[in-house]
Amino acid sequence: VKENLIRQHPIKSKINRWMERKLLEERINFIRQHEWDAHQLSIDQCKALGNQQAAYFIQRDLTFRHDHESTLRHSLKSPVQPSRTIKCRRSIWFPKNWLIERTHPLPITRIPTLFAKYTYESVVEEARQRLIRADPDAQYNLRADTIYSTTTRYPFWRWKLFITRAYCWLSNVIYTLCLVVPFGSSFSFRALLALKPFRSNYELKREDLKLHEDPYSETQTFISRLVALWEHVGQSRRNFERVPDRGFLGKNIQRIFNRFWNYVVKGFFGTVSICVFYPVSCVLISTISFILGVLSPIWMPIVTLIFHILQILVYDANSSGEYGRKLFCVINILVTDFLLCGIVQPILVLIALIATPITSVLLVIYALLHRYSRGMYDRIMYHLIIKHRARVPAHDGFLARRIAGPGLAAEYFYQVASPEVLAALESLIEQNELKVYRSYIEQILNKPLEDYRMFFDEAFKPFSVKVQSMHGTVYGRMNDVVDGHIKNLRSTIEKRSDLLRLHRSSHHDRIRLTESDLTAVLIEGTQLVEKWYPQRIFSYLNKNELEKFWNDYDLEPNDWLSLASKLLQELFCRDFLTPLEQTDVFYSLKVDHSTVSKYAHMIHSASLHDDLDVATSIYLPETTYTIQQPTFNETILNPNETILDISTDYFGNYHAKTHGRIYRFFNHQAKYLKDAENLSKFVDYTSITCHFSIPIPLSHIAFVNVIIYNRDNNNSTTTISLKNISLQDILSLIEYHKKFYNAPMLPLNHNIA
């Protein structure tokens, strides 16, 4: 290629940059032409060596990359959307250019614009009727303006917006001032000279898809206003004569005032005002509007520019939103970015660079002087006054303040007696018994209702009949009786529960026991739980409910010690099973007017053993754990995982040579970034070596075949980890495949030993 370039372009070939660019283009073209040759060569060699498995994987990789990779990359590419899209509307001047669009069903299509007041050829009329009959549910829209969109995606979008907005505003101003106001408004020349009222706007009718004159846009003319005025006068006179003579003064006298009001005030003065003021208003307004419209190409761009300048200076309504600034953008940029961050901040940094060490030295000197002077002062005061005269104060004062001692500990506990804990535990057991008993009795009370409802549904549900709990019916009376029993049951149980309920407060989290008391409470509490739960609670539960009970507490069945521990934690707090230590600060609590002699006798009769059972009274805080599902390393089936690092960075060399010294100076890369770049070397994505490594690594072929062999022979050697594959497994696999392939399974240029 280089020789051909020198032969064809003897002068240009002497330019090094031109030669490098042409050679680079030829390299890229060659790589693209032979991009898939390595895949096909690998497939042919694998088939020739009898390695059908590897050939299959390479063929699948070739099919995917050749047919589906580009489509998937395009569909999975993250879309780039502008922060904001600004729309400008331009009015279409003439109704014949208005757009009639079919908006539903999609896609949006445009149809010709026709007017109802005109007559068209039969071919056009038949085509329009066929369009209407083809889709009766279609939706159509009349659009009298054109929309221009400007996005904030590209640089200099504000200048594009300025040009677009100036063009749209100029067109709309000319249309309004030169066409609408002089020829279509109520004070136009047309309204002054026309004989009949006119309609300046059109609307789309769904019946024939034509533009009809809008009745709401009817405009009165000079003549029509005079005619309407005298018609109103005549109608008022006819209405007066039609009414019977039943007034206070009589119709002969009222007729004089009525004629004066209608003919003189309304008719004469109204006609004079219309004839004098209306023509002058039409001429002045239309003329001034037309002159402003003609001069709009001069002043409208200036107005648009002033509007954009005010947006930048005061309020930027078209901000793209990347900085979050809308008020006083230029002031923020000049003051914050340029003045403060660009000038003041570097100056302060330079000042701090000099002032910080000096300030640090002064602070160190002050700290040393303060430390030694204060220490000397404390020693003198202690040995002269405090040591001989001071004592522990009873309360805080301006000379001394207590910081430690009795009653001043930040972490303190309350110690309760063991019999009181057992009494509270038994009350909790009784509360649980009442809950289970209430649920059991309610099921018994509701059983007749359920049987009646089940019988009624089986008998009358095929006839679409349902049970209704109305007063007077059998089901209604049964329901009332059951509700009354349930209400009495709940009120009775609630009264008993209120007596047994232990009202919690913020001090419950600080209640503790000593180690010996806690051990005795656990022993006796276990006996209480083992005694009362099977007899008074489990007797109301069936097998499923009993299993659910143990599962809710996360305990094994009949684990009474753990159940007693759970109940104590529920009764007091989670850390209740942590005993008091000698270093803890605690206060003893006593209960007055209570009889706990029975529980005191239980504590004294408890048999305590100095063995490992005592260790069960101390529990660590509860924790949660998660078990991850087993996973399979799917990369072992990917023959394209390893990429050979033999590609050349042609683009990097090319750009490094084309840019000059100024570019390299301002884009100089730091040393630590160069070290990080060396960790991930360049991969040329246009190179054929990027898609596949030649030859295929032996480990992938061996692993895949060993997995298939073990799967077919029910061997779980490789189902756990690939590290278990040994050389003997690979050799046995080769011997196994010799029965099916005449050629060797592995490439001859690889030595597995």
Automatic annotation (TrEMBL):
Spell out the InterPro entries in the cross-references: Lips
The regions listed as transmembrane in this protein's record are 263-292, 298-315, 351-369
Keywords (A to Z) from UniProt: Membrane, Transmembrane, Transmembrane helix
Taxonomic source organism: Rotaria magnacalcarata
Name by which UniProt lists this protein? Uncharacterized protein
